[in-house]
């Protein structure tokens, strides 16, 4: 392909993919399948790798990340990012209304109400319609430009298509993790033995500051916009601004309402107090803004906040109830979770009887005593939590909670690693919830996808002594299954054929299913593609494991440890005999050349023409190998900007050749 052809093709693919992306995220429609979409994206990524100079500023390949940012540049806000005054009562709100009326000298005015979204505020700057900066609030005067991470948010336009937009403008809004996504993230983390996150807001904030945008892309952040700034804003009211940004393709929550006076505002507040629980994200109040923009100007700002807006915060509904006891749950990985057993109380629409206490640190932080009265809250969240002890009701005779020392399921002494918050039951092969948990993990959709089996059936099979490990599932006979409660001819044959069908699940899925700690779906995929077979993976040493993409010390240790255990090797051998796929079908993309002739490369720092993952692809596409750490065997260290001094030192010591980006590019020619 000539350069000119590549340029046209890159433009064509960029437009086409963005069209389908917008259709999907803004109109909830799709005209092509996910597979077709992914293929187009792959085609574009390949071309961009070959011709990085033609990559478009709104390229959809940025949505999947790939940029590593060592340090986010600190940028001054053009308009300071102020906070809002808070109120909690109707009286304070009426006082606010009085101040507005006075400030406007008796002119008529209207309000515009929105929900207060509980996320991380962001300022997005567009230049000639292209997203140019995404700045966090910081101290209100300066913030960090996290643009590579913001670009992974699919609902955020990278380029505005509408005509007649100001040459430069700024929109502000809130970046958040939807409740569903947050819960799913925590479930996945729990499943592979990682500690769970405490709340969605902090997780969104932490995610936005991650250095590797590929990781950010996986988290599925989302964003609502609520503020348009900049000269040349054609609107005269906030309402018009909101309609403008909607028309330009920004996502605006459809919960806003124009209110003609403070009485209507109060109705809006009341309406959303209960209903907000149904929204996809957490909210903690209502923001009330004077609608007319010149009236906003007339009212102006105090040092900290605008006089034309205020936040009404919902009091998180909180109620005091007795802590009757603490029970402990044991998960698949042996992690123990303490749960508060509460005297049932009615709170924000449901009866609450239990609340997770996460780990021993949380119990100590709250200084819980059995018999205490504790405050239970359900904020904008769905899951109730214990926030504090009601000390006014503490009985002097109560004793602080003593964390259990032995597993409540099997009696084994618990262990706790130095840098971990959770206690673990080490009795992997003799502790019931760990055994059944591993099978439930094995059959789940993302793993072997045996949907003819469920948690209840697994429990029954285990109780009858029919299965103890996933491999036992493949030895089940018709007679065995007929022993289960409620199973007749048809349901039995369904169950067995479901198990049989899983023999064709790809190796990637098998590797995830066997449940190695810290090996989630993505890591399993990378390992499968890198090592290509179970045998090669099992034989890999710690150092070799570290060479695989996405594998750091924690995962390498865990995988290495897994394949050292006799029981695991035995189980793996049985699964192999049962006919599961133990080799990867993944085909390496065709080589563009053999210019790099099998030489090995470590890349470090940031590059002008490539994102890091792209550079790795380029190396592989031209016949090279990418390693993750510098050793004596390494041929080249490709040094980008901001390369860590430790890597350079090590390379120099070991006589590894260090090359820069243009020297690398010369090797390709
Ligand atoms: S307007 C000049 N509208 O609340 C103030 N803010 O304490 C402009 N927030 O930093 C802010 N939802 O991060 C506005 N619908 C909404 C909001 C909202 C959440 C956040 C925002 C701001 C903080 C104010």
Provide a quick synopsis of the model.
This protein has 25 helices and 21 strands. 2-(butylsulfanyl)adenosine (IVH) is lined by residues 82-84, 114, 116-117, 121, 174, 226-227, 287, 306, 309, 311.
Properties at a glance:
669 residues, alpha+beta, Helix Hairpins, D-amino Acid Aminotransferase, Chain A, domain 1, OB fold (Dihydrolipoamide Acetyltransferase, E2P), six-stranded antiparallel sheet, five-stranded mixed sheet, 21 strands, binds 2-(butylsulfanyl)adenosine
Mean of residue pLDDT? Answer: 91
CATH architecture level-2 label of the largest domain: 2-Layer Sandwich
Rg over CA atoms: 29 Å
Tally the helices. 25
CATH topology of the largest domain: D-amino Acid Aminotransferase, Chain A, domain 1
CATH level 1 name of the largest domain: Alpha Beta
What is the distance, rounded to the nearest whole angstrom, between the alpha carbons of the first and last residues?
16 Å
Per DSSP E runs of 2 or more residues, the count of β-strands stands at 21
Task: Specify the CATH homologous superfamily of the largest domain.
Answer: DNA ligase/mRNA capping enzyme
Which overall shape is indicated by the principal axes computed on the Cα atoms?
Answer: globular
pLDDT < 50 runs, ≥5 residues: none
Count of discrete domains: 6
The percent range for strand residues is 15-25%
Bound molecules: 2-(butylsulfanyl)adenosine
Please estimate the helix content: 25-40%
Largest sheet: 6 strands, antiparallel
Structure commentary:
This protein is an alpha+beta fold and 669 residues long. The chain has 6 domains: 3-64, Helix hairpin bin (Helix Hairpins); 75-313, D-amino Acid Aminotransferase, Chain A, domain 1 (2-Layer Sandwich); 317-425, OB fold (Dihydrolipoamide Acetyltransferase, E2P), CATH 2.40.50; 432-504, Orthogonal Bundle (DNA polymerase, domain 1); 507-577, 5' to 3' exonuclease, C-terminal subdomain (DNA polymerase, domain 1, Orthogonal Bundle); 600-668, Rossmann fold. The chain has 25 helices and 21 strands. The strands form 5 sheets. Strands 12, 13, 14, 15, 16 and 17 form a 6-stranded antiparallel beta sheet that branches. Strands 2-11-10-3-9 form a 5-stranded mixed beta sheet. A 4-stranded antiparallel beta sheet has the order 5-4-7-8. Helix 17 packs across helix 18. It is globular. The model has no long low-confidence stretch (mean pLDDT 91). It binds 2-(butylsulfanyl)adenosine. Residues 82-84, 114, 116-117, 121, 174, 226-227, 287, 306, 309, 311 line the site of 2-(butylsulfanyl)adenosine.
